[in-house]
Specification:
Length: 324
């Protein structure tokens, strides 16, 4: 009996020691949790942030700039739907109508110039991107013989020009007068965009070039497999610049082209509206309504395409401007 009592006493002592150890451990854990838990300030204890004068001025300036840009565009769009031909400063059409757009869309003689504009814009953008990317990549090869001479030669053309008459004679010798492809050839080589692409390629880590060379890639394989996939932002932003330039080129058509089948949409639309050569249709619209509808139709393709290119354009708008 004495041995049983002794064993029960020892067991109870062990259980008491274990329970004490568990309690101490739990208290220690609670203390650590309290120390590690960050203190949260109540809403009432938090002091309200002060509005700075710079923030107010900054917001006002940007709101003013936004209004300066948006209001004229909105005024043109509003007047394109306004049947009243008299100019009036109203942001909403007095008598809404779609006659201006219906007149432009139903004028068959605008179809061929519009097709010419689409073809020259697409081909001109592709040719311009090809020349800018290849030229920038070649000038980025530091071991190329004559690299500095080519760079200075291209930069020289940005400062000095031969003039209108020598340019006209060159285009005539190339049989590009009265030919819509002059828009592609003239804008195919843009040194400014080439320099931007060159600076963008310089920002690509040199380790990628070295790794590709170790894998046995040739310079052109590096260009197509490494450089181009990393240049989507630059290609989108510079491609948009090429497209806008070719699409909106009116002066080149006016100087070099007299064949009505080779003119672009901008030139034909301008001649039709400014010279009063408007078609006779069932839609009775004023000259000013047709004028503003033509402006909207001219800028509408890029207004529709910009949202899809915005994420690339915002990234690449400063391409080559900052060097690390």
């Amino acid at each position: 009996m004495a041995e049983k009592d002794t064993k029960e006493i020892q067991t109870s002592e062990k259980e008491g020691i274990i329970s004490d150890a568990v309690e101490k451990t739990a208290k220690a854990v609670e203390k650590e949790d309290k120390r590690s838990t960050p203190k949260i300030n109540m809403v009432g204890d938090k002091k309200p942030s002060k509005i700075k004068l710079f923030d107010i001025v900054n917001y006002l300036v940007f709101i003013l700039l936004a209004l300066i840009i948006i209001i004229p565009i909105w005024k043109v769009v509003s007047d394109s739907f306004n049947e009243v031909g008299v100019y009036q400063f109203k942001l909403w059409p007095t008598k809404p109508t779609i006659g201006g757009y219906a007149t432009i869309f139903t004028t068959t003689r605008l179809y061929r110039p519009f097709l010419n504009s689409v073809i020259t814009t697409v081909v001109g953008t592709l040719v311009g991107l090809l020349m800018a990317t290849l030229g920038g990549y070649v000038l980025n090869q530091y071991d190329m013989p004559g690299r500095s001479a080519f760079s200075y030669f291209l930069l020289f053309t940005m400062i000095f020009s031969g003039g209108m008459i020598p340019e006209y004679l060159v285009m005539k010798q190339l049989h590009l007068t009265d030919n819509m492809w002059i828009l592609v050839v003239k804008h195919g080589m843009n040194v400014y965009n080439l320099v931007l692409m060159k600076n963008f390629f310089e920002g690509i880590p040199a380790s990628l070039y070295e790794a590709a060379k170790l894998d046995g890639c040739s310079p052109m394989q590096i260009f197509y497999k490494i450089v181009l996939p990393l240049s989507k932002a630059a290609l989108a932003s510079i491609g948009l610049m090429f497209a806008v330039t070719v699409w909106n080129d009116y002066s080149t058509v006016q100087i070099y082209i007299t064949n009505p089948d080779q003119v672009n949409f901008q030139y034909k639309l301008r001649v039709m509206i400014m010279d009063g050569d408007t078609p006779t249709t069932a839609y009775k619209v004023s000259q000013s309504t047709l004028y503003y509808a033509g402006i909207v139709c001219a800028i509408l393709p890029f207004m529709a395409a910009y949202p899809f290119l915005q994420k690339y354009f915002v990234t690449g708008v400063n391409v080559g401007a900052v060097k690390e």
